[in-house]
Amino acid sequence: MALRFFGNGPGGSGEDSQPPGAGCAAMIAEVRGYWQALRRDGALPLRAEIDPRGIAGALSGAFLVERIAPGVGRLRIAGSSFTELLGMDARGMPLSAVFDPVARNRLAVALDQCFLRPAILDAPLAAETGLGRPALTGRMILLPLASDGTRAETALGCLALSGTVGRQPRRLITGALSPESVDPGAPDLRAPALRMLEAAGPQFAVRPTRSGTSYLQLVDLDETSAPHRV
Fold it and tell me: Taking the C-alpha atoms of 54, 7, 208 and 219 in order, what is their torsion angle to the nearest 10 degrees?
């Protein structure tokens, strides 16, 4: 089965159209177990090895994200959980689109750890509540894939939600993110500036400019001071 059938767009049917809800842990475990089973002698799986039939029970939340700049990941394939959160097809959008501004800062740092260290990200999630926004919680996992030298770094992920999205688009929030190194004994492949981010904590973020280049930005998460470029 071709990888492009990973998830349906708006109006899709089958497994991918089932509403998110119970079974967050089962979905995460299925995707992580599948990824782990593809590893041979500790090597990361290749993107070409990913077959949606291997994660049939988690297709609504399954996605592939591609690193296009420091701290920026673009959704190449996205299941219906993203469509429900955003109210539109998420393919081609940045992964950060489903997160609130503070969570985006943390996600930017975690993404570079996932892609370049490499590391596994398994994060608890929630969403702001209010009128038309009932309780919504979940988990997201990111699992790095091996680079074939011709494409950007890629990761297999799953966004598992529990609750009702409601009538309005939602943005997710998360606390501090602590990716787990795939191989604790392996060297850290990130640039020194990116390693500095982890040591400094989540107040650092990587921001792209309109020209496509990126810079590091010191962000006050309490919004009590102005950002500073590094």
Answer: -80
C-alpha–C-alpha distance, residues 78 and 189, integer Å:
27
For domain 15-176, the CATH class is: alpha beta
* Angle, helices 192-200/101-116, rounded to nearest 10 degrees: 130
- pLDDT confidence of residue 159: 94
Cβ-based neighbours of 29, under 8 Å, separated by 6 or more: none
Residues sharing a CB contact under 8 Å with residue 1, sequence separation 6 or more, in sequence order: 51, 52, 53
Structure tokens, 54: 């291997």
Residue range 88-117: mean pLDDT, rounded: 92
Q: d(Cα 50, Cα 169) in Å, to the nearest integer?
A: 30
Query: What does the DSSP assignment read for 124-156?
Result: EEEE--BTTB--EEEEEEEEE-B--SSS--EEE
Please state the domain extents for the chain.
15-176
Q: Which residues contact 58 (CB under 8 A, 6 or more apart)?
A: 27, 28, 30, 31, 158, 160
Q: What is the pLDDT of residue 152?
A: 66
Cβ atoms 24, 161 nearer than 8 A: yes
Residue 174: closest CA among 141, 212, 215: 141
Residues in the chain: 230
pLDDT at 150: 58
Q: Which of 221, 169, 180 is nearest to 200 (CA)?
A: 221
